[in-house]
Amino acid sequence: MYTAFMNNSWEIASGSASPASRLGRPRSERARLAILDAAADLLIEGGLGAATMEAIAARAGVSKVTIYKWWPTRGAVAVDAYFHRSEPTNTIEETGDLARDLTNQLAKMIDAFAGRPGVVMAELIGQAQTDPNLAETLRSRWLKPRRDEAAAVLQRSIDRGEIRPDVDIPALMDQLFAPIYYRLTMQHEPLDEKLARTLVRTLLDGVRL
Amino acid sequence: MYTAFMNNSWEIASGSASPASRLGRPRSERARLAILDAAADLLIEGGLGAATMEAIAARAGVSKVTIYKWWPTRGAVAVDAYFHRSEPTNTIEETGDLARDLTNQLAKMIDAFAGRPGVVMAELIGQAQTDPNLAETLRSRWLKPRRDEAAAVLQRSIDRGEIRPDVDIPALMDQLFAPIYYRLTMQHEPLDEKLARTLVRTLLDGVRL
Amino acid sequence: MYTAFMNNSWEIASGSASPASRLGRPRSERARLAILDAAADLLIEGGLGAATMEAIAARAGVSKVTIYKWWPTRGAVAVDAYFHRSEPTNTIEETGDLARDLTNQLAKMIDAFAGRPGVVMAELIGQAQTDPNLAETLRSRWLKPRRDEAAAVLQRSIDRGEIRPDVDIPALMDQLFAPIYYRLTMQHEPLDEKLARTLVRTLLDGVRL
Amino acid sequence: MYTAFMNNSWEIASGSASPASRLGRPRSERARLAILDAAADLLIEGGLGAATMEAIAARAGVSKVTIYKWWPTRGAVAVDAYFHRSEPTNTIEETGDLARDLTNQLAKMIDAFAGRPGVVMAELIGQAQTDPNLAETLRSRWLKPRRDEAAAVLQRSIDRGEIRPDVDIPALMDQLFAPIYYRLTMQHEPLDEKLARTLVRTLLDGVRL
DNA sequence: AAGTAATCGAGACGGTACGTCCGGTCTTCCT
DNA sequence: AGGAAGACCGGACGTACCGTCTCGATTACTT
Asked: From the candidates D153, D157, D174, which should be mutated to test the interface with C, based on the most C CB atoms within 10 A?
């Protein structure tokens, strides 16, 4: 688990780090940012294939060892770089209208996957198939927050008595989110915002006459 | 497009081979099978990472050039090897009970993804993110046949007047199949046959009270 | 020994070939010439390195097997091709003036080694270091005729009483010819016709005061 | 020019190494020697053909990249390995007797070319026909020192008034040394020490009655 | 005319080595 | 102790030729 690395900023920010960490030369924040920026640039320009450890090190003006010191695999640097650039946009305002709120969240995600960032996310997911650390990071830092948020919206709707109380919430989440990732990775159908409305409507009302 | 390579058996079987193809030493069927078997074995044993061109060549007792002659990338060999082992099982009997038929098909797919073959498929999907040929082959040889079959089942149900005639069939297909691939690749929830029933039920009836 | 192959033209010309050779399809003279021409062209254009069996076959419009049928190594084809283009020029007129006759022969050889043919000969000699067949062919078809001719000139001079009768003729031949090959292959000094005069003069008169 | 590589030991020995060269991990002397030893062994055992980059790397327990880092071609490694084993023996004592001194030097060279080392040298010369770097190295590190030494001996003899002062010294050098290389590479006559005496005698006194 | 035999083109094949790339690890000195 | 520089081993890559091997087609001579 290298999620610890993600918390570095936090550890550094907090003044009361463990006494052991106060020995020797402190970690260079300059190097950390240079690495993340270099990796992010490479990801955007040439995808995951271009973001080799060597290329990142060269571009960041940093030695390879420094990268390995803080991130175990190239996938780890890549996710961090991805979030370094695009994390902020993940909260959503809730109106109380279930269909509208869910549609909004899906549309926001579809929008975030347009263009290069979508390609990069697809490649990260691809890489995660052979990199368990990367998979775990994607789950905990990307998927879970979004699922939790939607699940909360749904739960509140259940509480309001709009939804059958016996539903399988994780399965519902999948029926909402999975098609987006599926189209992102398989490219068999276009990934546009119309999809958001269709998914929510079918989920709520079904297709049976 | 290397899908042409997949059709070799078909092309050869059909009597109308191009006259040019009768010149020179014919392709060695022995080598073709040895390659596919070696690749399939390696995939099962060690995943896509183990199915190196060199390893396949060594195990098949074949030269690397012979592989490159017929498949452009290791992904290409891998899909062919995957299908070489597992293609037959894809048709489904139709009973006329929509829910039952769809559930059966999903359950069959979930079953096919249990164990090593599921891991391999996940890795193939992962690899497809950086290998457009592989992506295209997966779409045309794996996804499409299954989607087409389910779509036909759904269409007949529409014709029988059981389903709203204005539904977005591709989106429905995604709401059925995508969660399976999503759980296969992201591993955030278990992929078991209970999921099949839940997906179909929600799709047909919705969750609204 | 593939010197037999060199005699092919002779064998073909002579009507009374061995009875065994009269069975089956006769050797294609067209292919033989196409091969030699292709090889010679490649030698001139890109040296021995360019005259691969595959390149020769492709350029001659001939299958590789046909070449291997008649020549065992690429060196063999190369010498034959070299002679195919440049053999005629090797006889010399004798005037009876020893110094003049020897100088003429050396000068002629130096001239033959100017430009690309010299480079090709150097490469053939180079290749002969690891190809015994090629070495033997060079000795018997190139070196020996020239040495024999010069040796005969020298012998007649001995008979005329101009030269010490106890000389080591092979060593004399080497002291005349070797410097030319040495400069051709080592390139440490220019290979020009002035060298011919110097070599002959020193050989005849020595350098002692 | 990779002769620079040959001088590494010298450059390192000299105290004035460039400041840049003190950065990073220093070159591994262990690897350098392992490579040269492995190459020399392979040369002796199987000639230049056996001294592939892969074989050298495997035998030296070194990666191919490390070899390519310091030597551009296999010829380059081969010469270095050759000299690594046999360089020391090249100086000669001078007695003041011209014939004797020259004969001694030639005999020493003939002796050095007996057995496997002679074969290897012949192959190096052969390879040099298509490898300009190798050719240059042979000239500067092998031929030139020996020619310079003999030329100095000759010059002193001229100074003593024993030899015609107008002689073409390079041509004389060739008439002495070339026959040895010629017999080494063409194998048309035996290369024994008797040749040394014959060459010197003819050079000094000529053959004219 | 049918049969026999060798040749030829095309091109697939196993094999060896090539020169390169990247991953991870290491060693050195500098800060 | 952290970091930049960079050398190092290992493994795989994709390519070039080699020499061998099928094929089917052609071209003679022999019955």
From this structure: D174
**Residue D6 confidence class, pLDDT cut points 50, 70, 90:** very low
Distance, in Å, from the CA atom of B207 to the CA atom of A203, rounded to the nearest integer, reads 7
Whole-angstrom Cα distance, residue C7 to residue C159? 35
DSSP-assigned letter for residue D27: P
Q: Supply the DSSP string of D43-72, one letter for each residue.
A: HHHHHHHH--HHHHHHHHT--HHHHHHH-S
**Which nucleotides in chain E lie closer than 7 A to a protein CB?**
4-31
Q: Which residues contact A189 (CB under 8 A, 6 or more apart)?
A: A183, B170, B171, B174
How far is C-alpha C136 from the geometric centre of its chain's CA atoms? 11
Q: How far apart are CA C27 and CA B39, in angstroms?
A: 45
d(CA A132, CA D89): 62
Q: Where are the alpha helices (DSSP H) in chain A?
A: 3-6, 8-13, 29-50, 53-60, 64-70, 74-86, 98-112, 116-128, 132-137, 144-159, 169-186, 194-205
CA distances from A201 to A177, A204, C84, D79 (A): 14, 5, 85, 78
* pLDDT tens digits for range B177-199: 999 999 999 999 999 999 999 99
d(CA D202, CA C167): 9
With beta carbons under 8 A apart, name residues in chain C contacting D161.
Answer: 209
pLDDT band at D48 (very low <50, low <70, confident <90, very high): very high
Specify the pLDDT at position D198: 97
φ and ψ of D63, to 5 deg = -85, 150
Q: Which of residues 23-52 of D touch strand F (CB under 7 A)?
A: 23-28, 31-32
Beta bridge partners of C163: D208
Q: Name, in order, each residue with C-beta under 8 angstroms of B61's C-beta and a sequence gap of 6 or more.
A: B34
The SS3 assignment for A1 reads coil
| Arithmetic mean of pLDDT over chain A | 86
Cross-strand bridge partners of residue B208: A163
**Distance of C1' in E23 from CA in A131, Å:** 14
Average pLDDT by stretches of 10, chain C with 209 residues? 37 38 78 95 95 96 95 94 78 86 95 94 96 93 93 95 95 97 98 96 94
pLDDT at D19: 52
